[in-house]
Amino acid sequence: MLGIFGGSFNPIHIGHLLLAEFIRDEFSLDKMIFIPTGNPPHKNVNDLESGHHRYNMVKLAIENNPFFDVSDIELKRKGVSYTFETLTEISREYPHEKIFFICGSDSIIQFPTWRDIGKIFELADIIVANRPNVPKEKLDEMINGFKMKYNARIACSAAPHMEVSSSEIRNRIKKGLSIRYMVPLTVAEYIKANNLYQE
Model-level pTM greater than 0.90? Predict the structure, then answer.
């Protein structure tokens, strides 16, 4: 059973890592693949560090966990990168694996704006991580709607939400403040060595 954890990882931080490990354990997944976004349709790419650096930071962050892996599948894709395309490629690469796609509750309520969500539900079970800014009633309504319309397989994770964000980390770096314990030490050293997120 394969977990797919996509994100900008700009940079990857302990919140991402704890969530991935919690969900891997909670759903008995054999492997968790981190997929840094290429050219996402729902984000301002001007804020993104290069795919090369984001990929390297993820690789450093997960290097000591044998259950974690990273893929540059979206970084190699030309043009806008859509989740259904990524899951299609993953399903071809791992034809005998059951695929679980991890997303935040803030993302799943935006699913109606995503390209070909029927294909997403066809290819993967969805694991939803809680976000504090999404009302439970709205989330339940959306999930039930997807189950009715698409026969979607959706489960909510009990993983606790970590109050750490990539944007907060980027802002602290710009101000010359410490990011110790917010990211793995290897990631902090990489950011410093490559002068990332500076003004």
Answer: yes
**Exposed / middle / buried, residue 40 (Cβ in 10 Å: 0-12, 13-18, 19+):** middle
Cα separations in angstroms, 175 against 8, 169, 171, 179, 193:
22, 10, 6, 11, 17
Three-state DSSP at 71 gives: coil
Identify any residues that bridge with 34 across adjacent strands, giving them in sequence order. Answer: 5, 70
Tens digits of per-residue pLDDT, 58-110? 999 999 999 999 999 999 988 888 999 999 999 999 999 999 999 999 999 99
Domain that includes residue 83, residue range: 2-162
| C-beta neighbour count of 19 within 10 angstroms | 22
Tally the C-alpha atoms within 13 A of residue 34's C-alpha that lie toward its C-beta: 31
Which among 21, 6, 15 has a CA at the least distance from the CA of 181?
15
Contacts with 161 (C-beta within 8 Å, 6 or more apart), sequence order? 129, 130, 131, 132
- Sign of dihedral through CA atoms 98, 102, 103, 105? positive
174 falls within a domain = no
Domain count for the chain: 1
